[in-house]
Amino acid sequence: MKVSSKSKGVFYLFSLLVMNFIQAEEVSSFQQCIFEKINTASDETTLGEIKGLCMMSIPTDQNDNKSTNIPKSNNESVLSFTAHKDNYIFPVSYNSSPNSTPYTQGLIEEKIHNFEIAFQLSSKMKILDNIFGDNGDLFGAYTGRFWWQAYNNDLSSPFRETNHEPELFIDFETDYHFGEWHLQNIVYGMVHQSNGRSMPLSRSWNRLYMEFNLSNKDAWIKFKPWLHVPEDTKVDAQDPTGDDNPDISRFMGNFELTAGYDFGKNHISVMLRDNLRKENRGAAQLNWTFPIWETTDVRGYIQYFKGYGESMIDYNASTNRFSIGFIMWESNFE
Questions:
Q1: Which domains does the chain possess?
Q2: 241-247: which pairs have CB atoms within 8 A and are 24 or more residues apart?
């Protein structure tokens, strides 16, 4: 179809009106290119030719909606299970300063070993699709983390700590650009985290959170601020009701910032938490995943963690841990 001068003028005026009225939505680079080409193209130029020129002029990271490492939840089917957080196992996980204090209250007298096995299982399921017009997908998710004293025969190799993290969240797809950065989605959620123990080892908290996912070709950033939902104050330390750990935000902070980069088939990332207080506490975690076999999705995984809140039982104890193992179901990279 050829574009006449009159049609060009009408289309151009209409596009200007659209751009003026849609202030809350960012017009993509492809749309801007179409507007400009129609205004300057000759009468013999077809719409197909204009589209082809604009497709070639758009940077690759915007054209294919890359980065590859931000999960695209809107592509998932309703009532199907997919990875939520990373699924991994560390056969060798060394903690240079294990926290034995919670277990010395007549429950476990023997020393906790430095070496243990640590693993995480995490999955989510889309419950409802497009609950706000053509956007906003509702998800339910569960993440379980486990620390197993498998090499501690003196204690009959118990599971030292198990954390359960069910959550409910709504994922909104977005298309905002800030220079080279693309805000792909915003998540609103609520999460409960607990170690499922009775007093005096019970630890739990509830949070409301937002998560912003940005990408820039092979780099990505996740910013996750949260609000700790307070509970009633315990009348007695052994009281099963009330807040098990009202000071948890002083150690876990109020946000989590993760940044990563993909170079080839290797993925590296760093996670930071901070309480933004004078008495500074938080945590840092370095991750490196890499290919080990070309014929499988199982990849190598090396992790280093330093700080507070690695587990619920250690929320107020600093951990210094180095782990090496395998990641089987990696959520951050597609």
A1: 5-58 (no CATH), 73-329 (2.40.230.10)
A2: 243/205, 244/199, 244/202, 244/203, 244/204, 244/205, 245/203, 245/204, 245/205, 245/312, 245/315, 245/316, 247/316
pLDDT value for 72: 52
Confidence (pTM): 0.75
Split at pLDDT 50, 70, 90, the class of 21 is: very low
> Taking Cα atoms as reference points, which of 287, 288, 284, 262 lies closest to residue 273?
284
- The residues annotated as belonging to the active site are 192, 194
Grouping H, G, I as helix, E, B as strand and the rest as coil, residue 142 is: strand
Contacts of 151 (CB under 8 A, 6+ apart): 113, 115, 116, 117, 157
Output the CA–CA distances (angstroms, integers) from residue 273 to 72, 85, 88, 295, in the order listed.
Answer: 25, 17, 21, 36
Residues 5, 83: Cα–Cα separation, whole Å: 52
